[in-house]
Structures are given as structure tokens and as C-alpha cells.
């Protein structure tokens, strides 16, 4: 994950633009038809999203792309309330998803990323 920006929302749902980086180690360009992903924290799905357009990742190259991610505000608030005492504000996450390719033999590539981020306003 490269960047996360709040786009807006309401009392029930918040929408974010999440920028991801994809790498292609192959000697052929990868035509990506669609990417979808789920954000899971402590085994609970907090958000899900998908790309809105197809793109091509160059051979032996990389590309950044945006996904629109919707978060369930009620679930997110309950999750945060239960973790007010998270040490140093660090939160672990898992991002599970699939890249759908526009190729005849290879249709999808699953991915899994683990990481952590700091909650806004958390003391260090």
C-alpha cells in the first residue's frame, strides 16, 4: 500500500482512495482487467474495494494504481474502540485480493500483503 486518502462518506460508510503498487517480473506486459481486495484487521473484514478501470503493467516494470475502498463505519468504530490502548498506535493489517488478468491462460493472481500503520493522533 502506497497511500490512503479519505474521499468522504456518511455515518454508515467511509470511502477511501487507496494507491497500490504492482510489480511485473515477467518479460511480457500484463493486461489487468480488474483488481479487488478486502482489508482485514484481527480477523475482521473492515473494508473492501475494487479498481474502476483496466490498465497494463509494463514488462519487468511496476505501476501504481488506485482503488476505491468502502469501509463500514460502524464496524470500524467498534474495532477502534476496542483498541484504544494499542501500543504506540501501531495497527497490523492484512490485505487479501485478486488481480484479474485479460490473458487467455492466466485469468487471476491472488495476493496477500501484511503490514502495519500508525493511527492518526497516536503518540509515539
Looking at this protein, list some descriptive labels.
8-stranded antiparallel beta sheet; Immunoglobulin-like; 124 residues; mainly beta; 60% strand
Describe the fold and architecture:
This protein has one domain (3-118): Immunoglobulin-like, CATH 2.60.40. The chain is mostly beta strands and 124 residues long. The model has no long low-confidence stretch (mean pLDDT 83). Strands 1, 2, 3, 4, 5, 6, 7 and 8 form an eight-stranded antiparallel beta sheet that branches. 10% of the residues are buried. A hairpin with a 3-residue loop joins strand 1 and strand 2. It has one helix at residues 73-81; strands at 3-9, 13-23, 30-41, 44-50, 55-57, 62-72, 90-101, 108-118. The chain is built from one helix and eight strands. 7% of the residues lie in helices and 60% in strands. The chain is elongated and about 45 Å long.
Strand and helix map with partners:
Blueprint: E1 3-9, E2 13-23, E3 30-41, E4 44-50, E5 55-57, E6 62-72, H1 73-81, E7 90-101, E8 108-118
Antiparallel strand pairs: 1-2, 2-6, 3-4, 3-5, 3-7, 4-6, 7-8
Amino acid at each position: 500500500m502506497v497511500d490512503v486518502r479519505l474521499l468522504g462518506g456518511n455515518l454508515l460508510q467511509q470511502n477511501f482512495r487507496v494507491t497500490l503498487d504492482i510489480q511485473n517480473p515477467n518479460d511480457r506486459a500484463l493486461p489487468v482487467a480488474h483488481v479487488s481486495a478486502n482489508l482485514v484487521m484481527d480477523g475482521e473484514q473492515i473494508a473492501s474495494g475494487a479498481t474502476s478501470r483496466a490498465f497494463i503493467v509494463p514488462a519487468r516494470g511496476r505501476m501504481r494504481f488506485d482503488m476505491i475502498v468502502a469501509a463500514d463505519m460502524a464496524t470500524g468504530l467498534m474495532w477502534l474502540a476496542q483498541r484504544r490502548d494499542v501500543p504506540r498506535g501501531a495497527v497490523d493489517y492484512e490485505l487479501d485480493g485478486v488481480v484479474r488478468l485479460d490473458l487467455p491462460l492466466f485469468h487471476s493472481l491472488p495476493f496477500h500483503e501484511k503490514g502495519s500503520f500508525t493511527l492518526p493522533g497516536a503518540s509515539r
